[in-house]
Amino acid sequence: MYLFDLDGTLIDSAGVWRKIDVDFLASRGFPWTEEYNQVVIHSIFPLAAQFTKEYCHIPDSVEDIIEEWRRMALTEYRDNIPLKPHVRAFLDQCAGEGRTMAIYTSCDPVLCQAALHHHGIAHYFAQIVYASDLGMEKRSPAAFAAALERLGVRPEDCRFFDDSPVSCAGAKAAGMTVTGVYDSLFAAREEEMRRLCHAYIRDFSELLTQMEG
């Protein structure tokens, strides 16, 4: 099975979330900080919202924070966020080769579905596993094991594609073959990704008609 992350791997959404975080914090009188970013960038909505509530000492409920983030992001996911370069061609190639594909994502389900249907690529994926349904951070090796159990796939039979160093590390620790995907959000960590992952690509054109196994 080929298993894909969504944000930063299939779709180019990094800039959207930076703006949402900046605008959300500013509306409560708080500046965006790298400390804040390093927590929420890797988190599922419920945990990120709980952290935000505690970090900013705001009265908003976790549910209200999540709903506000979802409203702020929905138009972008539904109408504007582009695919990463050559994603469609690679998915076409994999489908033509008869490969089973799935998604494992920390993205909110509503936003994930909006992006997939906007680009007309939902049909490529046999299943979607949401980290929020597992109740764990996506990057945890235990969460990867739980995702694979839901997919009915052994780790040694799964190649995982992701842009995040911590997610790639979690997948590798879970026994999966990992392909790192360049994203501007983690550009400064490219060398780390090249050391960590079994393979690393700048974009999916590098894999067209080349991948085996």
What does this structure look like?
- This protein is α/β, with parallel strands linked by helices and 213 residues long.
- Helices cover 49% and strands 11% of the residues.
- It contains ten helices and six strands.
- It has helices spanning 14-27, 34-40, 45-56, 62-80, 87-96, 109-119, 131-134, 141-151, 165-173, 190-196, and strands at residues 2-4, 101-105, 127-130, 159-162, 177-181, 199-201.
- Strands 3-2-1-4-5-6 form a six-stranded parallel beta sheet.
- Strand 2 (101-105), helix 6 and strand 3 form a beta-alpha-beta unit.
- Helix 1 (14-27) runs antiparallel to helix 4, helix 3 packs across helix 4 (62-80) and helix 4 (62-80) packs parallel to helix 6 (109-119).
- The longest helix is centred in the middle third of the chain and has 19 residues, at 62-80.
- The chain is globular, with a radius of gyration of 17 Å.
- The protein starts with a strand and ends in a 12-residue tail after the last strand.
Summarize it.
This protein is an alpha/beta fold and 213 residues long. It is 49% helix and 11% strand. It is built from 10 helices and 6 strands, in the order βαααααβαβααβαβαβ.
